[in-house]
Amino acid sequence: MKIVVLDGHVLNPGDLSWDGLAKLGELVVYDRTPSELVVERATGADILISNKVVLGAAELAALPDLRYLGVQATGVNIIDLEAARERGIVVTNVPAYSTASVAQHVFALILELTRGVGRHAELVRNGAWTNCPDFAFWETPQVELVGKILGIVGFGDIGRAVARIASAFDMRVLVHTRTPDSTVSAEVSFVSLEELLAKADIVSLHCPLSPQTEKLINAERLELMKGSAYLINTGRGPLVDESALATALHRGEIAGAGLDVLVKEPPTADNPLFNAPNCFITPHLAWATLAARQRLMDTVVANVRAFLAGEPQNLVEKP
User: Fold this and answer.
1) How many C-beta neighbours within 10 Å does residue 153 have?
2) I need a surface site. Which of 8, 113, 153, 224 has the fewest CB within 10 A?
3) Which residues are catalytic?
């Protein structure tokens, strides 16, 4: 049984172990695989593991031995699911491994935007406090979260975790989702997207990317937001029209943005958000705590083991 990992570096840059997979077959791990080498490296593999390497119909057609595709992530947009189904290839993913880590990162971005911890620590390091005539100073508005409205767009596992943290901060929570849940705490109110954008002090995106949600936050919807509001995106980059967001930030139409995902990753140097005021961008690391990556690794191994036992789990069906 040959197992090939096409892009293992981000999951395991050296602080985890591949031993769990190695015990299940002949294992080959590549840190990264460019598109032109996918078929060459995957040829002969019974089991293929990928995170961001695209496996479309052409690649799958060139791999007649392939029986199983394991995605090292929750999203499976890298796989042509219809082509996999036609070829009888089992596809699995890893749900919910990063919920706590992503929710934590949402509030790391919120707290940076509202309190400027990193910015002020850098000012102190550069001597600004030493040279200050007063015992205290601040260069950005200091915003208290108690009583503020957090608008959550999408209410899966991560959206719910973010809502729980918001409640601990004594924030009010508005949610927009296709499937309102009547069992959720009365502290959460389900509203239209337009009402959420108009009322929220902070908008956090947690909906899946689809043709319907691409550029969900565009110029028109940014105009609905308060001038004092912040936008957070730890979901998918294409949920936001980056040019429209950059324009809104330059014009002061919203107060700031915290983003962990962009439309193109890695981004090009001319991304309009790089020069936008009060825009904090982190390099798609919300999911990447050691604890979350260990859960991801454990589930990747468990998925392969279940497949080999004839009882596949975390199956992904064609939408």
Assistant:
1) 25
2) 224
3) 236, 265, 284
